[in-house]
Design goal:
single chain, mainly beta, seven-stranded mixed sheet, four-stranded antiparallel sheet, globular
Length: 116
């Protein structure tokens, strides 16, 4: 069965960095576009970044462009989100996502807290 498992969240000071990982199983990872979303307290879940099946094409929300980098290692069935120059407003639960045959699959989420 399809599964996504995120890791790498934590508490970081403003200006710091974190790298999130998401490992997929139960589906052909290398054939799937992968995305990261986030949800801050009291707000709707928002799209953060996407990466194509081969990793050759990436897209970012304006709020993270230039600070975040999405990448993938298909040999490890893993997608990454490198987050630099973190701001307090980046605080959220971060979710990995893929869509398979019209169905959205989500990981359990990993908490990122940016605070001094």
């Amino acid at each position: 069965q399809e599964q996504l498992v995120e890791s790498g969240g934590g508490l970081v000071q403003p200006g710091g960095s974190l790298r999130l990982s998401c490992t997929g199983s139960g589906f052909t990872f290398s054939s799937s576009t992968m995305k990261w979303y986030r949800q801050a307290p009291g707000k709707e879940r928002e799209w953060v970044a996407s990466i194509s099946r081969t990793g050759s094409t990436t897209y970012y929300a304006d709020s993270v462009k230039g600070r975040y980098t999405i990448s993938r290692d298909n040999a490890k069935n893993t997608v990454y989100l490198q987050m630099n120059s973190l701001k307090p407003e980046d605080t959220a639960v971060y979710y990995c996502n893929t869509e398979l045959y019209g169905v959205n699959y989500w990981g359990q989420g990993t908490q990122v807290t940016v605070s001094s």
